[in-house]
Amino acid sequence: MLWGGRFRKNLDKAALRFSTSFPIDIRLLPEDIEGSLAHAEMLSKIGLLSQKEFDDIAGGLKKIEKEWNGSAWPKDLDSYEDVHSAIEARLYELIGDAAGKLHTGRSRNDQIATCERLWTKKACLQIKSLQVSLQKTLLSSAERHTETLMPGYTHLQRAQPISLAFHFLAYMEMLERDKNRFVHVIEASDSNPLGSAALAGSTLPLDRELTRQILRFEKSTANAMDTVSDRDYFLDFLHACGVGMMHLSRLAEEMILWSTSEWNFIQLSDEYSTGSSLMPQKKNPDMAELIRGKVGRVYGHYMALSTTMKGLPLSYNRDLQEDKIPVFDSFDTYCDCLEIMTGMIATMRVNDRRFESELAGSFSLATDLADALVMKGVAFREAHRIVGQIVQFAEEKGQKFSDLSLSDLKTIYSGFAESDLELLKIEQALKRKKTTGSPNPDLVKQQIERWRKTLTAK
Amino acid sequence: MLWGGRFRKNLDKAALRFSTSFPIDIRLLPEDIEGSLAHAEMLSKIGLLSQKEFDDIAGGLKKIEKEWNGSAWPKDLDSYEDVHSAIEARLYELIGDAAGKLHTGRSRNDQIATCERLWTKKACLQIKSLQVSLQKTLLSSAERHTETLMPGYTHLQRAQPISLAFHFLAYMEMLERDKNRFVHVIEASDSNPLGSAALAGSTLPLDRELTRQILRFEKSTANAMDTVSDRDYFLDFLHACGVGMMHLSRLAEEMILWSTSEWNFIQLSDEYSTGSSLMPQKKNPDMAELIRGKVGRVYGHYMALSTTMKGLPLSYNRDLQEDKIPVFDSFDTYCDCLEIMTGMIATMRVNDRRFESELAGSFSLATDLADALVMKGVAFREAHRIVGQIVQFAEEKGQKFSDLSLSDLKTIYSGFAESDLELLKIEQALKRKKTTGSPNPDLVKQQIERWRKTLTAK
Amino acid sequence: MLWGGRFRKNLDKAALRFSTSFPIDIRLLPEDIEGSLAHAEMLSKIGLLSQKEFDDIAGGLKKIEKEWNGSAWPKDLDSYEDVHSAIEARLYELIGDAAGKLHTGRSRNDQIATCERLWTKKACLQIKSLQVSLQKTLLSSAERHTETLMPGYTHLQRAQPISLAFHFLAYMEMLERDKNRFVHVIEASDSNPLGSAALAGSTLPLDRELTRQILRFEKSTANAMDTVSDRDYFLDFLHACGVGMMHLSRLAEEMILWSTSEWNFIQLSDEYSTGSSLMPQKKNPDMAELIRGKVGRVYGHYMALSTTMKGLPLSYNRDLQEDKIPVFDSFDTYCDCLEIMTGMIATMRVNDRRFESELAGSFSLATDLADALVMKGVAFREAHRIVGQIVQFAEEKGQKFSDLSLSDLKTIYSGFAESDLELLKIEQALKRKKTTGSPNPDLVKQQIERWRKTLTAK
Amino acid sequence: MLWGGRFRKNLDKAALRFSTSFPIDIRLLPEDIEGSLAHAEMLSKIGLLSQKEFDDIAGGLKKIEKEWNGSAWPKDLDSYEDVHSAIEARLYELIGDAAGKLHTGRSRNDQIATCERLWTKKACLQIKSLQVSLQKTLLSSAERHTETLMPGYTHLQRAQPISLAFHFLAYMEMLERDKNRFVHVIEASDSNPLGSAALAGSTLPLDRELTRQILRFEKSTANAMDTVSDRDYFLDFLHACGVGMMHLSRLAEEMILWSTSEWNFIQLSDEYSTGSSLMPQKKNPDMAELIRGKVGRVYGHYMALSTTMKGLPLSYNRDLQEDKIPVFDSFDTYCDCLEIMTGMIATMRVNDRRFESELAGSFSLATDLADALVMKGVAFREAHRIVGQIVQFAEEKGQKFSDLSLSDLKTIYSGFAESDLELLKIEQALKRKKTTGSPNPDLVKQQIERWRKTLTAK
């Protein structure tokens, strides 16, 4: 036992296993070594390590990282309770007593906070790059489908005609907000905890500004006790993953719906579908279902850490060890889902003309008709009522909108003119849209152009 | 690809990795083999397997189980997408084409439900046995502490004197309810899904009653589509784990409080404590903190599966694959926490006399004093007011309850008599309790006796 | 302030408003009065109330209940911090000092637990009756639709033909499990807390067995401290509501899907749909969407109370006041959703023949074909492969299953016979099902019969 | 029914009650009127309203707001399904047919999004001002307690001496992060949805830039379908409330602990405590308990809306109506808790000297002693071991740190000098701290100064 000098008995075996975090936090090895190198450099600058000691420590740490990256990692290290103890033990083996000096003026508490913050910053960048990939794929698909007509839904009822490009642009917006949320997480984690020690700083003349510079943190944390008690950056991270997954779950739901026999709007590639053991004709959108299902996992992780943090008195409590599983698994899950969704969108086949004839005959232009009445000076509520009657009239006669004649229309409202019949035709529907943010193909193309530039710039 | 005969392309590599559940569901290997043996026996009884085929299949399956339990498991099987495919592939290697007949009249959907239900029943029994262990440990400690006085708290304020035995008996009740909840889970999972096939049963003359008997299920499920869509038993299981963990978190919180310098009521054994890397004098209740922290994990798992199930249309959807991680990890976590809590209670040292003198002088007998006034015929609200004034009187004079004289009491209420001074002494406090369920030592001993019998009987 | 005799200052105004629970717990008025009547009767039996006092108290309490049920409730009572204080204050006004004796040997802690347990038992019965109503409605619909063909889905892909009756029977099973979960909640709440007092029982000779009998509890609680700390029955209740809501969310999802233009399988009644302010042709399944959306609310309530309970030391803590909002709102929400779903199912119109022709030509009989090969002695895996090739063959030729000729079949597998062509026809598909729990119309009718008897019996 | 012109039957009565949101969204009345005024002004600018019509509408809306703020609100309006319908109906009563023109080019979907975003911006500012109040109160208390010694805890074990000021500065940091999170929510909600209409913009020449300017939004939303489907700003809001509540729950926990007989560090004011009905001596920290308990409620709300959003296909679905209860109740709860916590901190009495003597004799300076050895050149791990032995030595002799003599020290490590005995004294402990962010009183005062300036500046 590394630090239990005063204890008479060793930890119970089950308790040791129970409290071990090595299999989880081993992925912090690069960050632990990065943080230790910075700490050692600072200790040597303020005279608490000799040049020789620093060289030994730095050399040892780098060797350990190489061992880990290669295949030379001594297997017995896996039995240590956490990655930090394992590295420390290995450093002793490699360089002897000098290793004992590395922990000068440092506690597990600020050491772990440093690892976590370094990791978080990297993780956010990795996620952002996957978010951009998905955006690029959506954008390419949008580019090909500015004229692919489909019903826009509210309440999953066909409401008004839109284009597939317009639909995908909605997800571009969501992903942009998702990216932005991770920018905030980076800011939230961009403070140097080193020098906070266990909870109250140190009587040693540690230079926190120096480690901050070496580790490229924006600033140093301002209160040592807060520093070792704080996991806000992880909660922010989990929130960002959760909302991101929620958006993917919505897109996944649509992939599933559009792949049904009933919708028949897209066909997923064989590379992203599976067969059935008992029903040979099936082609199942398993990947989309898994993405939709995994949102639960990430929500659960948010709830897990939130619960764990509830009501904890300051400062560090061992409960906080439970922070890593939810965060690491949310990262893995969200990254995987982004990657799979990207592949699924990139390889799916769109049934371009699926909705054209159906929309042509549908009532989905009712709003446009009401708007046209408004332009004639009819009050909107009245226009709405008139169009409602036209729909009812057509339904009763078993007719579609495009079947109606001018005299049919005039039965309901005498002010209709020949030119209004154009409004019942689908071809020009999107082009009539005037507002920014609408599916007007020209506006959609402008937006695609804008997105293209933004994404390339980054 | 085992079942994708009609497909042109293989699953994308990332998608394969993404959708694989092998590392998780490999722990269902024994249940999968148990279920397959039952299914094969039934197939042979109804003539769809020859005796030879059945013997081959049964022999093969048993060999696979041995390989798994020993060290002969062929490593390449780990790359299959799930445990079922791996077993099936291995069976082919071992016995050839007869393996192909095992899947007759069976789908992954009813196969998985069978594994899960068999597993759940076993898991509940395992948990119950750990719950009983903790109960036995609490009971032993209670037995030693029927006269160990301590303050009973409400609002974490000292309210009335109780005994440690009485305190632990409260947890006996909670654990009993926790056990009962798992009894309900067993009932909920005790139905045979085999023969439900993919979602609609089979045109083959499968004998579901026979597999039910072999697998010792209480009954068979009544609707095939419900059978393959249902994960209620898992939600019930997660709820039972969650409430169980919540109770442990309360006990853990008390272990932590009682171990503080401020409370100083118990001392945890070195085997269940750890030291600090920077503060050599520390003895930290890490195990209790971890138990308290891990309640978040189990809550999160409940939320995860609940979210996943939300709004899924019937019947089986791949989202359901996400059911196993929360369930298995909740099981592991709850089992570990039960075991560790048991060890911690069994080895802790109680500072028996810690509260005796403090309670002797405290106001914690105020309620008894009010009750005595009631027995004299004073209305309770009035008695309450009188005692409130006595407390205020004593506080102002800086005195304790036991310092008060009869004339002091009479200043407030003239009806007090000499004998009432006894009520201000702590020694007889518990013995004066009259109601069942109170900390009266005689009643507590009776309860301990009753528990002892109940726990031994099982 | 009723009980703060020793305090110098009143509660801060904002703090008073903050801590008030009156608007929430006023709905416990009947239970509070029921509990108080039982307590008073017991006090009079053991001689702590005179007959006169008891009569006054009982008369006063009954008058208060009448005032509440009528319109005579004095408005100033609404400013009390909780329903218990309001009743107590009103009782003083009505009968004077005798009111002060009602609180003899009772604490808010056991009083509240009594109210909650009495309420829970009633609430469960009310829910059960609404669950039965929905079951009856589903059953009636099932009765009319034993021959209404529809695709059974897995992964939302058409898998095998089933009937709408069979589909609804799946929900009968879910609802039956849901009812059972509330039976467990009744058991969990069926213990008498009275006599537990604040946390440690009483020195007064309270007769807990008597109040148990009067209040018709199954038994009395066994440990006073557990009694006032326990909210397990509420967590069990919330779990039962959550799973129940989850099932409704699945059915709601299907109502929404089936109402789309794409599915066009059902039409919801105008009484359960709404129009759009901008799109006159819309008919939106708002009620189904609200039910689906409200599952979040109930999940949230479970999480709320679970979080609140985490890590609370014994015994009563004021945190527990937060138990009522989640429970009451979950009750209201689940009851409403059951009722609305019942009305929606009862009034919807089914497009009976919607899927007949589509299924006739589809590949959804592929499994049956494979099974038939098995009956000819082909190994299942081989049969599966053969049928997969037939599907591919038909797709390439742009043909449906029912278009295939015997020679087509023989191209793939020579063992096919003339009679096998029958297997490609939809008409007999359901009747060929042999297993219990399958959609075979005869078996389905038997099940309907069984349900009919069960539901009538209750 | 306002918009159901085409429907034959009215909504079922239970369904109407079920789907009504009036009691909840009535608090959006000011935002609805603000949004309508902007929309009307824009309509008049683009010629779709005459000056007269606009004057009538604007006059009518302002009158309605006055009626609402005063007591002239017509009660029958409360029966409308939502605030928007109620306002619209009232406007008809007041100004007749011109009211019908207000809905021109607007849908409930963009109308509601506008209300919600306007509300969110205001709510965030209100919260920030309460956060600042709490910060100011903490700062004032910190100012008075820069020299109030207390143990700093890790694992709730005394670790190192700190000051109460330092402890409160930790919460200053948390609150600052909490404020920042709401700044992000403001950014997230600061886009104009008007002109997005139902889901696809409009064929009318609506000027979205103009309404943006009038409503002082930073920009306009870029995709109409995303606009009406998006509730990210509400999820961000709930996350911010949740983390904020979590921090308050930690502080509340400490208030509760510090108020115990065991800690006896603070005494809460009577204005923020309550008595007990059965135990007259009790003084309960109810407000702190309620704050701690209410964190569950806010977590639950986050989970509720997250669940509701899961897997919803685009665009608007009625499920989204469930967004308001969690958001409004989280706002109310968090505001209340901030306010109550502020009052509780402002009025509590600190037992300044409570820990002085205990700390003087404790081992809490062990770290400093180890650091001093490091400054002598001893490797830290070795120093740690030495100090561990000293602790063990003292414990065995039943001595405190301050009792140890130089020769005692030398028994363990010969390098100790006379001057090192100073290190065992508590008086100078804080002043020896050297690192930024430590409890060194001079550094703490600097930080208080900095905070004072920051808070005044805002």
Q: Helices and strands of chain A, in N-to-C order?
A: HHHHHHEEHEHEHHEHHEHHHHH
Strands side by side in the biggest sheet of chain A: 1-2
Which term fits the overall shape of chain A? elongated
Low-confidence stretches of chain A at least 5 residues in length (pLDDT < 50)? none
Per DSSP, the total helix count of chain A is 17
The radius of gyration computed from the alpha-carbon positions of chain A, rounded to a whole number of angstroms, is 31 Å
The quaternary organization reads as homotetramer
* Fraction in helix of chain A: 55-70%
Q: Largest sheet of chain A at a glance?
A: 2 strands, antiparallel
Considering residues with a beta carbon less than 8 A from a beta carbon on another chain, report the largest interface and each chain's count.
Answer: A-D, 116 and 117 residues
Mean pLDDT of chain A: 93
Spatial gap, N to C terminus of chain A: 49 Å
Based on DSSP secondary structure assignment, what is the total number of beta strands of chain A?
6
Beta-strand residue fraction of chain A? under 5%
Helical/strand content category of chain A: mainly alpha
Which descriptors apply to this entry?
458 residues; two-stranded parallel ribbon
Quick take:
Chain A has 458 residues and is mostly helical. Chain A contains 17 helices and six strands.
Give a description of the structure.
The structure is a homotetramer of 458-residue chains. With 458 residues, chain A is mostly helical. Chain A has a two-stranded antiparallel sheet with strand order 1-2. Chain A has a two-stranded parallel sheet with strand order 3-4. In chain A, strands 5-6 form a two-stranded antiparallel ribbon. The longest helix of chain A is centred in the N-terminal third of the chain and has 37 residues.
